[in-house]
Amino acid sequence: MKKKVHLRDIADKLGVSVKTVSGALSGDSIRMSEETRKRIKAAAEELGYQPNIVARGMRQGVLPIISLVAEGLITLPFATEIVRSLDNTGRALGLSVMATNVGSARGIDAGVAEALRFTPKAIAFATMFHREVTLSAEVARSIDLTINCFDAGGQVPAVVPDDVQAAADIVSHCFDKGRRRIAFLNLPGILAGQLREEGFRAAHAARCIPVQDNWLLPATRGAHYTEFAMSLVQPHVTALMAASPRPDTILCGNDRVALEVYGALHRLGIAIPSDVAVASFDNQAEIARRLDPPLTTMALPHRAMGRRAAEILAGITPAEAQIQRIPFRLIERSSL
Amino acid sequence: MKKKVHLRDIADKLGVSVKTVSGALSGDSIRMSEETRKRIKAAAEELGYQPNIVARGMRQGVLPIISLVAEGLITLPFATEIVRSLDNTGRALGLSVMATNVGSARGIDAGVAEALRFTPKAIAFATMFHREVTLSAEVARSIDLTINCFDAGGQVPAVVPDDVQAAADIVSHCFDKGRRRIAFLNLPGILAGQLREEGFRAAHAARCIPVQDNWLLPATRGAHYTEFAMSLVQPHVTALMAASPRPDTILCGNDRVALEVYGALHRLGIAIPSDVAVASFDNQAEIARRLDPPLTTMALPHRAMGRRAAEILAGITPAEAQIQRIPFRLIERSSL
DNA sequence: ATGAAAGCGCTAACAA
DNA sequence: TTGTTAGCGCTTTCAT
Predict the structure, then answer these.
(1) Could you tell me if A162 and A328 are in contact, meaning their C-beta atoms sit under 8 angstroms apart?
(2) B328 CA – D8 C1', rounded, Å
(3) Chain B residues close to A97, C-beta within 8 Å
(4) B327 touches chain A (CB under 8 A)
(5) Rounded to an integer, what distance in angstroms lies between the CA atom of residue A285 and that of residue A298?
(6) In-domain check, residue A151
(7) d(CA B153, CA B150)
(8) What H or E segment, with its residue span, contains residue A301?
(9) Confidence grade of residue B72 (pLDDT, cut at 50, 70, 90)
(10) Residue whose CA lies closest to nucleotide C11 C1'
(11) pLDDT value, residue A105
(12) How far is the CA of A9 from the C1' of D1 (A)?
């Protein structure tokens, strides 16, 4: 690597002052003769000048960083997309992403405090699951955006997936495909599940199709659908298929539930989609594409969320609504 | 948030000089009366002093950051674990993690250049797949560690998964379980596949069990096992199961291949593991645990890799070997 | 053992 | 239009 070039060097070379060089390079705000500016820019280019952002950061009190405080560093596989998208979009806007993990062992406060020490341009807080969070006043003040969650206080802008609409969309799609009797193996104990049930009911209401309440079932016992929660998929599917009439569609809380539903149906010798259709949420591609038959599912808008987040954080988008709901996309495959 | 406390403030309060305070707080290297040191530390504590790391960084030319330049920000779902582990371990050592994405659009050089501008304590480069990379001399000089890959030049320390050993282990485990005829739906075109074949053969050799070469098959057509590569699983499984004798075990290149194998076997009405056992690599838990029956698989040591990486980067571990191979763990479930 | 002063590289305020 | 001077908050000589 070449040795570092400083403002000093290019000032000396051109026989002007450091400040002039600084002014010439930092935006067009400072007035000066076009010619000087050009000369300076040319020289800077030639020498390969790169401003020392740490020095600049100290002077200005801000580093060109977006700090992401993330719950479990967004472990959910597909949620990686949020971070990647944030990173890509952020960089295009001149900001680097610094991530820090919070969780059970370390609270949000600690994560935010760590972030703050680098005097970032903006700080975002992201959760693994869509949910409401209760931020301390101090944290709420420090944070510029919440991703996949929203503050109970309602003062912090938020970007979240539109779960209600997603459920309504997939249900409508089922109706369009001629399906009428939809069972829903929903995710228990989480906000997404509640919201999707809303959408599920709304879509039924819109077509005046009655909801069969005892077909709204939790995919697992216990509060969450985690890796370790006890699955209820097999018994539920077995019972549903024994009913008369039986559902013509099983809507799943996520692609992993669908994976289990496939297993249960295989066991029963029931064909997808001819005997019963399956649809889901997430579009965890490695699962959804590889299932046999490939799974029709509503794709979580993680990429769009990351992009929107970066724009808001960079101050590009005027944070219109307090809570921005990003729509899912329907991915049609052949399970429905 | 309270107002910032500066060295100045605590110096004034105690009637000592700034330098004395600085000296007292920064390690025990500077000699001074124990009493002064104690008083200063107490005052710092009381006022809630937090050094301004940007100012310090400028002065020292180093920020307490580990910069991770990652190919695709390590999209592979389970590989998130590397980042998380790096973050957790790094923080325990006083370092924050800054991540930046590189890929087709933006080369390693650009990523490293971006990282360098923040004058981090250390820089690591990570890839999605275990493979050899060819780094420019400049990049190789700037990088302190490669994760999941190693430089062709051989000058950069590396942390990689031990694919050879993993394959040998799972094959031995099959033998221990009484299995003798193992087919291998390997990952084509990637280093992990080659290395695992080595291990596969070595384990056979160790027990003097012959390898059936035409049972070593690629899971997909084309160079890689990607989301979009055309799968060969179904035809291969069908052919294998029609052979005589047929394999008693199908070893899969990863859990997603196994997912497809399950689908193919279901179609053929073949039971797992009574008719044929299935085993795999990765331990992508959301798949492996949810398959029916749950999948026995070799867990990629991502967490251990992240931890080791952080230790090396923080300068804790004397980078013993140039290339550190981290062992997989056998996760026994019931498919074998 | 402690203090004074210089300076990291940059930009903001004030002069010229 | 450009140069000079002060810092940003910290650490590091060099004196004392």
Answers:
(1) yes
(2) 50
(3) 98-100
(4) no
(5) 11
(6) yes
(7) 9
(8) none
(9) confident
(10) A59
(11) 77
(12) 21
* CB contacts, 8 Å: B220 with chain A: none
Cβ proximity of B118 and B63 under 8 Å: yes
State pLDDT tens for residues B278-302.
Answer: 999 999 888 999 999 999 999 999 9
Residues B256, B77 contacting (CB under 8 angstroms): no
As a whole number of angstroms, the distance between CA A255 and CA A233 comes to 12
Domain residues for the domain of A40 are 7-51
Say which nucleotide is closest to residue B56, CA to C1' distance. Answer: D10
Give me the pLDDT at residue A78, please.
57
Q: Which stretches of chain A drop beneath a pLDDT of 50?
A: 1
Quote the tokens at residue B292: 């029916």
What is the number of alpha carbons within 13 Å of residue B138 lying toward its C-beta? 10
Three-state DSSP at A34 gives helix
For residue B204, give every residue at least 6 positions away whose Cβ sits within 8 Å of its Cβ, in sequence order, or none. Answer: B171, B210, B211
Whether A293 maps to a domain, the answer reads: yes
Q: Is the peptide bond before A273 cis (omega within 30 degrees of 0)?
A: yes
Reading the block at residue B317, the tokens are: 């571990």
Q: Are residues B41 and B79 in the same domain?
A: no
**Does B103 reach chain A within 8 Å, measured CB to CB?**
no
Q: Which residue of B has its CA nearest to A51?
A: B117
List of E strands, B36-164 = 63-71, 96-102, 120-133, 145-151, 158-161
Q: What is the dihedral of CA B4, B6, B12, B18, to 10 degrees?
A: 180
- CA nearest to A175, candidates A149, A200, A152: A200
Q: What is the pLDDT of residues A308-325, one digit of tens each?
A: 998 899 887 666 668 999
Distances (CA, A) of A212 to A182, A184, A286, B235: 8, 10, 32, 41
Residue of B nearest to A83 (CA): B73
User: In the predicted model, what is the mean pLDDT of chain B?
Assistant: 90
List residues bridging with A230 in a β-sheet.
A221
Please say whether the beta carbons of A328 and A164 come within 8 A.
no
Evaluate the CA torsion angle B319, B330, B197, B188 in order and state its sign.
negative
Which residue is associated with the tokens 């979580």? A300
CATH number of the domain encompassing residue A64: 3.40.50.2300
Which chain A residues are closer than 8 Å to B227 by Cβ?
A: 285-286, 289
Number of domains in chain A: 3
Residue B109 tokens, joined: 């050089």
DSSP assignment letter at B90: H
B259 and B169: one domain? yes
DSSP-derived secondary structure letter, B273: T
Is A316 within a domain? Answer: yes
Q: Do A124 and A220 share a structural domain?
A: no
Closest CA to B164 of B142, B184, B190, B192: B192
In a domain, A205, yes or no: yes
> How much is the pLDDT for B29?
61
B294 exposed, middle or buried (CB, 10 Å; 0-12, 13-18, 19+)? middle
Whole-angstrom Cα Rg for chain B: 26
Q: What pTM does this model have?
A: 0.88
Q: How many residues does chain A have?
A: 336
